[in-house]
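Changelog excerpt

This revision adds worked examples to the README so contributors can see how folded entries look when concatenated. The first example is reproduced verbatim below.
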Amino acid sequence: MFKFLEEEPFSPIKHSYEVEGILHREKSKFQDIAVIENRFFGRMLLLDGIVQITALDEFFYHEMLTHVVMHAHPCPKRVIVIGGGDGGIVREVLRHKTVEKVYFVEIDESVIRVSKQFFPEVAQSVDDPRVEIKVMDGAEFVKSATGIDIVIVDSTDVIGFARTLFTKEFFDAVRNSMTENGMFVTHTESLHLHKDIVIEMQEKLKGTFPVVDLYTATIATYPGNWWAFAVGSLKLNPRECRQPFEIETKYYDDEIHAQCFLTRKFYDKLIKRQLKW
């Protein structure tokens, strides 16, 4: 048994995990991919040494990134999922009966292959007939997409090749791909450790979307733990549930939806940079 050190590239915190075994490791065209076994978290997927999901708690992240906007939309039919090669977001999107088409856009097909092999309970829906897998840069895909109701970005951290998914050019392309009730969501790192990134993303989204908001969830294996999610909407308030809560989930529900957004007073102080930590 030994420790696997997670090197968080822009954080003062480093995590280490006891490794009972390395189940898989390879170098893809884009990144180092590893699957390890941990006594507490079970199987863990790491990209470039950074934990992406664990078998124990992956549902917290996948449910929160997916269902807030899916329930805020009155009838999501066509959805783009960018990144998330493990397939967890696709699984959650397909819990909604209204969904007719999911474009699953992942730049690294090796992540999809490895996830299907080692995390079948997470990747269980990627071969659903409603899913069309596109192995390419998501920023390029959205430029030609049309008639989209929801766009969900589940990328690696806001660095490296994922940076194209956090630009005004990308947000404008997302907006242009959408129907009139279109909504967009992405993670924006830790509110504890990456406050400036969280604020920057809100400011960028406001240059494209009329309605912009921020909600959070606690993710045990992500640096800073208090993870932020940014929403951009063409007109609908994401704080409002427009569909009855009828899907099967482990964590997310209509009460969580109502509670996960920052209070208006705290949000205003945050965005105006009146809070220091």
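The second example, added in the same revision:
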Amino acid sequence: MAGDAREALLDRCVDALKEGGFSQLSLREIASATGTSHRMLIYHFGSREGLLAEVVRRIEAEQRAALAALAAGSDDPVEVSGRFWRRLADPALAPAERLFFEIYAHALFGRSWTESFRASVIAAWAAPVEEMFGQLGYDPTEARRRARLALAATRGLLLDLLITGDREILDGAADLFARLITAPPAPKA
């Protein structure tokens, strides 16, 4: 029962974040926006930071599911990449993405509350993206390298978009990157 209540509360927090962002809000303000008390948030998430990390974890899981659905619906990796980029670049996701990068910055300093984030921010994405590259014909080592490059480049493009808002040039850069990274592997000599 407590798990269901926690998940329902997390759902409300994710919805509130998507509506207008809340990384700058206090725990009491987040509680007010989600129709609960700050004590319930502390009970379920331990701290404001723990809540923020859980919100990002949930949104990241949603993004991985969206990528998997896109990949299952097409055998054209450039099309999948383009559709996924458009999803990421949707201005409605900007509050969640800003929160992602905020927590990423805290993780760089090894904040204890970012431990699960640090453990999953690369690992949770690496396997499914590696699998996609494997399906394109890359050997496991090359698939792993390309997956990490794809993660880093996509996050860099997204960070650039959030900072500059240069949508046209970054849409073009994302398209170029997709074509380069998904080019068929060179034939073995």
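Reviewer comment on example two: The two ends are 59 Å apart (CA to CA). The mean pLDDT is 90.
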